[in-house]
Amino acid sequence: MNDATKSSTADSSAQLWNNSQLEALAALNLPQWHKTAVTTAEASAGETTYFYKLQDWILSCPVPIPVTVQSWHRDVFRTLAPDSQQRPTEISASIAERTEGVKFLELPELTMPELDAAQKRDLWLRICNSDD
Question: Cα dist. 72→2, 62, 94, 130 in Å?
Answer without folding.
Answer: 67, 17, 28, 18
